[in-house]
Specification:
The protein is an alpha+beta fold. It is built from 13 helices and 13 strands. It has two domains: about 280 residues, D-amino Acid Aminotransferase, Chain A, domain 1; about 70 residues, 2-Layer Sandwich (Dna Ligase, domain 1), CATH 3.30.1490.20. Helices cover about 35% and strands about 15% of the residues.
């Protein structure tokens, strides 16, 4: 029997869905108009060819090609608050429908806040056993102490060397997201400098460098009551390169590149000491190490790679991570064929409730499609949270969310510039 209150909530939800649809269409139209009237000036840059232009890609990755009008999507670098405005509206409506504001923070019930914010990476990785633990690239935690950074680095590297770790290593904060504070360190001095960046008692993670450069973001969801999960998104992650010609400087190559030319603010300061260098003909120069979108990495929708073999492989891996239902795996792989077969996979990180389906940041993905995928993710979080609440798990409080959010924000002030 439908009560008056239930009918009102259902009507409110239906009205909100309709309002969201028109709101998204309005955003799409208004910002497309704004983009057309405020295009980036390229008066000092050689024009990009109107036909598709291939750029350098790492071995094992499919070729990357840009078209003049689809180098960067019009919403790709909007501020986070604007992108998530429809999500916030939906969250409020679903909170009324499900009777809880924090229900999504229960989607992965063995992880505080489902890993939404302020949760150490190590807290999830430590839960992995068997196949999952074997698939994750080896990592260790160092807690910044009162010794000098040099002494900490020396003793740390002695311990890591005894455990089979060798330089270069990847350093990153144990609490952080979106590739913040990630550094590739090649020497003891660089390890010491990384440790020096952080205040006392901060936890930093050191991880073995992957065997291969190709990387994918694979979004995995296990629906309520299901023994196995499914892949709802797969995107390839390209670290941007420019390729030398023996004539132009690095700065000129960035200005000529179809995408890098529109993201110069991300690259010029980072490579200030080499901007006037002329790269040799055919020399590939990597602009960023961390394949993070906000650092200028390129994402390409690759859902066509999803196969039963890959899905089965991920299910075998994720079966050894207890009570994990929702999140994105950032995975290194040798080549596309082996990825589709679910072989040669090295997990860098497992991102939980705050992660995104990366195909939405493909410059060829339409605005409505991207927002629809994002809204679907958060409806899934509510659905999973409701399932676990029925199982007897308690929803976290708003105070706990706020405390962890502020803790991560305070720590982020110390993050070094991401490589």
């Amino acid at each position: 029997m439908i009560t008056g209150r239930s009918k009102k909530i259902a009507d409110l939800h239906e009205s909100t869905v309709i309002a969201q649809r028109y709101f998204l269409k309005w955003l799409h139209y208004s910002f497309n108009q704004r983009r057309n009237s405020t295009m980036v000036s390229t008066s000092n840059i050689e024009s990009t060819p109107k036909s598709g232009r291939k750029v350098y890609t790492a071995p094992g990755m499919r070729s990357l090609e840009f078209e003049e009008k689809k180098v960067v999507s019009f919403f790709e670098f909007w501020p986070t608050w604007l992108i998530y405005l429809p999500v916030g509206l939906q969250w409020l409506i679903l909170s009324i429908r499900y009777g809880s504001l924090t229900l999504p923070l229960l989607a992965n019930p063995k992880l505080p806040l489902s890993g939404m914010v302020g949760v150490p990476k190590s807290e999830l990785l430590e839960q992995a056993t068997g196949c999952c633990e074997q698939a994750i690239l080896p990592w260790r935690i160092h807690v910044v102490n009162t010794e000098s950074p040099e002494l900490q680095a020396e003793s740390l590297m002695m311990r890591l060397k005894a455990e089979g770790f060798t330089l270069p290593l990847v350093c990153k904060p144990d609490i952080g997201c979106r590739g913040s504070g990630v550094k590739l360190v090649h020497s003891l001095e660089q390890v010491a400098a990384y440790i020096q960046s952080y205040p006392l008692n901060t936890r930093v993670m050191l991880q073995k460098l992957a065997s291969w450069e190709p990387e994918a973001g694979i979004f995995f969801v296990r629906e309520p009551g299901q023994a196995e999960g499914k892949i709802i998104s797969l995107a390839l992650k390209y670290s941007p390169y420019v390729e030398g010609d023996g004539v132009h400087t690095l700065k000129q190559l960035i200005e000529k590149d179809p995408r890098a030319s529109q993201l110069q603010h991300l690259y010029l300061e980072r490579h200030a000491d080499r901007l006037n260098d002329v790269l040799a003909d055919g020399e590939a120069y990597r602009l960023v190490f961390s394949a993070s979108h906000c650092r200028g990495a390129v994402f390409r929708d690759a859902r066509d790679i999803i196969t039963p073999k890959l899905t089965d492989s991920l299910n075998r891996i994720m079966a050894d991570l207890p009570e994990f239902y929702y999140g994105r795996l950032d995975i290194k792989f040798s080549n596309e064929q082996r990825l589709s077969e679910g072989e040669d996979l090295e997990i860098i990180e497992i991102n939980a409730a705050s992660s995104e389906s990366l195909h939405i940041w493909d410059s060829r993905t339409g605005f409505i499609e991207a927002m629809s995928a994002l809204l679907l993710q958060y409806r899934t979080l509510f659905r999973l949270g409701a399932f676990h609440r029925r199982r007897g798990f308690r929803t976290p409080g708003v105070k706990e969310f706020w405390r962890r959010l502020q803790s991560e924000r305070n720590l982020s002030k110390y993050y070094p510039e991401t490589d």
